[in-house]
């Protein structure tokens, strides 16, 4: 069965590749604006659904007989009540790291999987708790200057330099990277 990944994230693609999946990237554009009063789980699930539905429409327009699964995902970090997406600047990365320093936060990844051509759908939000060590101002400055967190929710990537700041996690490690691999695999098997 063919698989399409409705995401431009190199980390999601790497997770699937490393797990032995063969797939094609079909990354649609969707407006990622957060709606007022939208809960984190609702937000990431909405974006995952919009990405996967846009990819499905594109795939079926190109090949009406296409058959397979389309996987979409979106990830945010929640520190207290603040939703942290991707930082738009180095100064925003520093702000995010300061808010995470010495505290636990949640990583939410919304996942949408659609089977084509019949349109069967599964949506879920995977949550992982992450605890950061207290960071010095120098550590924050050096990490922000490295650029490692520029395109990552919460301004950090657990699989890179920021891994040294993580004291513990409760939940799926791959979820923190952007795709809860075991749950995605189980969902595909259940289809």
Task: Give a nutshell description of this structure.
With 191 residues, this protein is α/β, with parallel strands linked by helices.
Biggest beta sheet summary: 7 strands, mixed
What is the CA–CA distance across the termini? 11 Å
**Tally of separate domains:** 1
- Strand percentage lies at 25-35%
Per CATH, what is the topology? Maf protein
Low-confidence stretches: none
Structural class: alpha/beta
CATH class: Alpha Beta
Question: Which terms summarize this structure?
Answer:
191 residues, alpha/beta, Maf protein, seven-stranded mixed β-sheet
Describe this structure in words.
A hairpin with a 2-residue loop joins strand 3 and strand 4 (82-84). The chain is 36% helix and 27% strand. Strands 1, 2, 3, 4, 5, 6 and 7 form a seven-stranded mixed sheet that branches. The chain has helices at 10-18, 40-62, 90-100, 137-146, 173-177, 181-190; strands spanning 2-5, 24-25, 68-79, 82-84, 104-116, 121-132, 166-170. It is of the alpha/beta class and 191 residues long. The longest helix has 23 residues, at 40-62.
Secondary structure topology:
Elements: E1 2-5, H1 10-18, E2 24-25, H2 40-62, E3 68-79, E4 82-84, H3 90-100, E5 104-116, E6 121-132, H4 137-146, E7 166-170, H5 173-177, H6 181-190
Parallel strand pairs: 1-2, 1-3
Antiparallel strand pairs: 3-4, 3-5, 5-6, 6-7
Helix pairs in contact: 3-4
